[in-house]
């Protein structure tokens, strides 16, 4: 699934048309990140400005360091969501299951809209605004807002900038184009604040996060001549450092940054199984396809998977073995 920005704008227009006189629930994914919160806030504010009663609904909470962006927008936890007359629009969800199965079940008639940028997005809504080469869901929303004339005030511009900033690794990935920087410049003119965003996202780490980072770094292991590097987090690491799974955000960048490493792997053991993150720098390695073999999906350079019922001690070698095999196949050596 993937469309041009122009087609995405048409899809978003259709969503707005359907929402006239109706109420909207803007849904994000589990463990929301900057692009998820940014696009939920931005879409919710744009819908409200267009006269639509809109709220955001998430399985998990808004991360505390991002709560300033959510000010003025109603965020409801999935477990507290009791309404049944809102039409759902998902943002930044590669697959509808990313919303969380219990929350998704509150919308039995399905999803009206799907705004996203993941290559693996199958187009699960009535109207799909999925641009797979866009840098962020906030990129899709910002560009579409300009094309169809949706209102972007200062708070909306800040939210859109937040998502672009975080999903491009502070404007450093190959997804950054002159057009994206020009679009971002227009967001800055509308009130987006790079210094504030940088402070909130990257300079508010807790001491616990630092301790968790130390543990993660101590767990790093190299495989296949050093082109794969994996690290682990167990529930005991969170308990010992007073952190939560939100704090693993960004850790996989450490192994990814090492010379010679082509694929970085973060394995997190939870009560119900292993969640994995994959990061790379060569699109030919197709980490989205690797994640697909491990019950997951995502982008070519950044993907994730979820293996229920697995444990590190029992299944680590098998998972790493599949990573090695995939990388050898794709690299042709
Ligand atoms: Mn995103």
Can you give keywords for this protein?
single chain, 333 residues, alpha/beta, inorganic pyrophosphatase (n-terminal core), Diaminopimelate Epimerase, Chain A, domain 1, 2 domains, 6-stranded parallel sheet, 6-stranded mixed sheet, 13 helices, binds manganese (II) ion
Number of strands: 12
Instruction: Could you tell me the CATH topology label of the largest domain.
Output: inorganic pyrophosphatase (n-terminal core)
Q: What is the CATH architecture descriptor of the largest domain?
A: Alpha-Beta Complex
**Dominant shape:** globular
Which molecules are bound in this entry? manganese (II) ion
- Indicate the proportion of strand residues: 15-25%
Query: How many separate domains?
Result: 2
CATH superfamily of the largest domain: inorganic pyrophosphatase (n-terminal core)
Calculate the mean pLDDT score and round it.
Answer: 96
* Largest β sheet strand count, sense and barrel closure: 6 strands, parallel
Work out the oligomeric state of the chains in this entry. Answer: single chain
N-to-C SSE string, H for helix and E for strand: HEHEHEEHEEHHHHHEEHHEEHEEH
The total of helices stands at 13
Low-pLDDT windows of residues:
none
**Sheet/helix structural class:** alpha/beta
């Amino acid at each position: 699934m993937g469309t041009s920005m122009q087609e995405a704008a048409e899809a978003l227009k259709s969503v707005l048309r359907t929402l006239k006189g109706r109420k909207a629930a803007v849904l994000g994914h589990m463990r929301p990140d900057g692009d998820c919160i940014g696009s939920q806030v931005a879409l919710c504010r744009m819908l409200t400005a267009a006269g639509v009663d809109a709220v955001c609904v998430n399985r998990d909470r808004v991360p505390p360091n991002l709560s300033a962006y959510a000010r003025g927008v109603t965020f409801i936890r999935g477990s507290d969501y009791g309404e049944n007359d809102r039409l759902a629009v998902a943002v930044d969800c590669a697959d509808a299951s990313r919303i969380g199965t219990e929350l998704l079940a509150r919308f039995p008639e399905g999803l009206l809209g799907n705004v996203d940028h993941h290559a693996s997005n199958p187009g699960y809504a009535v109207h799909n605004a999925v641009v797979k080469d866009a840098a962020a869901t906030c990129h899709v929303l910002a560009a579409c807002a300009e094309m169809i004339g949706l209102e972007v005030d200062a708070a909306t511009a800040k939210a859109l900038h937040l998502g672009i900033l975080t999903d491009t690794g502070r404007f450093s990935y190959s997804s950054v184009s002159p057009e994206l920087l020009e679009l971002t410049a227009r967001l800055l003119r509308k009130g987006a604040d790079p210094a504030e965003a940088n402070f909130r996202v990257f300079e508010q780490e807790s001491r616990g996060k630092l301790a968790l980072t130390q543990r993660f770094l101590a767990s790093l292991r190299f495989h296949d001549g050093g082109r794969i590097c994996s690290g682990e987090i167990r529930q005991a690491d969170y308990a010992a450092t007073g952190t939560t799974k939100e704090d693993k955000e960004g850790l996989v960048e450490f192994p990814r940054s090492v010379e010679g490493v082509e694929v970085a792997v973060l394995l997190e053991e939870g009560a119900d199984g292993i969640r994995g993150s994959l990061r790379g720098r060569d699109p030919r390695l197709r980490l989205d396809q690797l994640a697909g073999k491990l019950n997951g999906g995502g982008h070519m350079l950044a993907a994730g998977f979820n293996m229920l019922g697995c444990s590190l001690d029992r299944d680590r070698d098998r998972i790493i073995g599949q990573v090695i095999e995939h990388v050898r196949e794709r690299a042709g050596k």
